[in-house]
Specification:
With 268 residues, the protein is mainly α. The chain is built from ten helices and two strands. The protein has one domain. It is globular, with a radius of gyration of 24 Å.
Length: 268
């Protein structure tokens, strides 16, 4: 009896709220809370010990100017950090936008451009607001021009890669491909953030803040896409199209079967 009641409550909740949407909304709230909490700790100077320990852990004890590992690893760090650079992210965004345009997903294209463009503006405003100095414990392995908090590379890689993955996944009918896109986006975002600390151009707390802010922004725009889709203002998900197509095919087969059964009785 209790099991039947639980099933009824679950069915009622699913009819009222899409579970995936609710889960994403909770993730957005958690990411925002994490960023606000971390920013408060940074402003109060409570992350100094953590930042220093992690940053120095990436350096050779005998020579703080030398990152851990062979020279090729340091070069790989520069290659990875470039994946979060403005030039690379702009090119990737343009390529994906053109893909959506050529695929007939014009409204999804504008959604992607709006999400990433506004995210870039938010990142600049946060840097100007906090104006945290760059680490000075070790030499920088890459040129830097802006403030340290939050990490722009980490934040923009999260915004761009996660936004593109989640929004493009909406128009991808295969679940495995959707999961692959999102996994790749998370992997790239993590690599970019770690490379910033490895090269000594960011405190670890800068990277953590960039990840949380970028993830919140990307997931928030996914919720926006869901809302716009519900109001017919953006291209529908391919999954919903598949369901509609399957229902239409089943209806056609059912009607054809009824017609086949009706024809012999008509002759008699």
């Amino acid at each position: 009896m209790q099991f039947d009641q639980a099933k009824a409550i679950w069915a009622h909740l699913r009819s009222r709220v899409e579970i995936t949407t609710l889960a994403v909304a909770l993730l957005v709230a958690a990411a925002v809370w994490a960023f606000v909490s971390l920013a408060g700790e940074v402003v109060e100077g409570d992350t100094t010990g953590f930042d220093t320990t992690i940053l120095l852990a990436f350096r050779s004890p005998a020579d703080m100017s030398d990152p851990l590992g062979p020279p090729w690893l340091e070069e790989l760090g520069r290659d990875l950090t470039a994946l979060g650079g403005t030039g690379i992210l702009v090119m990737i965004t343009v390529f994906v936008a053109l893909y959506l345009l050529f695929s007939g997903k014009r409204r999804s294209m504008w959604l992607v451009l709006a999400a990433i463009g506004s995210g870039q503006m938010m990142g600049r405003l946060l840097k100007m607001g906090f104006d945290r100095p760059r680490p000075d414990l070790v030499p920088h392995g890459s040129y830097v021009y802006t403030a340290s908090f939050p990490s722009g590379h980490s934040m923009m890689s999260a915004i761009v890669y996660l936004t593109l993955a989640t929004l493009v996944a909406r128009v991808e009918p295969r679940r495995r491909v959707r999961a692959y896109l999102i996994t790749c986006a998370c992997f790239l975002t993590i690599l970019v953030g770690v490379s910033r600390v490895y090269l000594g151009v960011h405190w670890p707390s800068d990277v953590l803040a960039g990840w949380t802010a970028g993830a919140a922004w990307a997931l928030g725009w996914w919720l926006v896409a869901q809302w716009l889709e519900a109001h017919g203002a953006v291209d529908p998900e391919e999954g919903s199209d598949e369901i509609t197509a399957e229902a239409a095919a089943a209806s056609f087969e059912h009607s054809s079967g009824d017609k086949a059964h009706a024809e012999p009785s008509g002759r008699s």
